[in-house]
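REQUEST ID: PR-0412
SUBMITTED BY: lab tech R.K.
PRIORITY: routine
TASK: structure prediction, single protein chain
INPUT:
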Amino acid sequence: MPRKTIELPDHIAYLAILDEHGRVDTKLMPDLAEDQVRHFHRIMLLSRRFDERLLSLQRQGRIGTFAPVKGQEAAQIGAVAPLQQADWVVPAFRETAAAIYRGTPLSGLCIFQAGYNEGGRIPEGQHDLPIAVPVGTQIPHAVGIAYGMKYRQQQQVTLVFFGDGATSQGDFHEGLNFAGVFNTPTVFLCQNNQWAISVPRWKQTKSPTLAQKALAYGIPGLQVDGNDVFAVYVAVQEAVERARAGEGPTLIECITYRLSLHTTADDPTKYRSEEEVKQWEKRDPLVRLQKYLLDQELLSKKDLKALEADIHAEIDHAWQEAQEQMASMGDPLDIFDHVYAELPPSLAEQRQAFQQFLARQKDTKHARTDHDSSAQPGAQTGNGQRR
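STATUS: complete
OUTPUT:
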């Protein structure tokens, strides 16, 4: 038999609309109301300032380790904006901007970062999964949700976030393969921020793009400027329309950059240069959107100053609210309450034993406190004399 060529898709498109100077390609610009564009900007600015406040609180020891979102706001807000309320969002661990846009309260995010599981509670009616810290594990979950919606003949879509590092995980490949075979309504949104903690993008794969990995699974792939909120919006809008029409999944690679730390336990100066960071700061998604709004007179410097003050007050209120809520949290017995609808006998027995242990600890603490109090200098003895 003669050797023959198998025809395959051999190209990946790249999309950009808004450049670093705030100029847009009017032919590609999405049809967005002015208020919606201003809303994009407000949430991006809120996310940036909230990020800065969380970093300050972490350095003070008032919250735990978290993953800053600085530099990736456009990739997240542009992605969730085309979704409907009934659609599902499955985040990784850095999707603060997406969570805020979807309606997660700032106070809840503060509580979660302070180490309380209660902060991970998703508001009623908001179809978002909680934060997923293990790299890539959320991808099969998202595909499963999409498969379930298709099985039930519901017109909903699932959007899943992950980073470039997750494309080296088996979960990514299994998720794309299943989604391709079963034609699930899934939008795979890769935030290629150039670094998987300290491993650079070029050490992770020989593929010129991450978007082209879609071709192996028979689904469309697209690469976009992830610091361009309009390009991300258009790319995801098209993918959502395809998915809702029963045409299956799409992989979108957003070229962006993590301008801050991987997490607050990280020191990026150990593995990347200051020059590299400065080059990417010139492409800051927030700055370029502000340039566009100012040039189009959709926002004035006076408006921006007032917005900064409003956001500052909103964050202050959220942190105050979080502290008030945390004051009544932290019962260790809560660990038994949110895994099973009905507690199995073995866990019920453990809960009872743990409850008795806590009661003994409490009694011991009170007894020690009473003893220490009675032993203080000047305390009265039983016969009325002073020690």
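NOTES: The chain has two domains: 13-326, 332-374.
REVIEWED BY: pending
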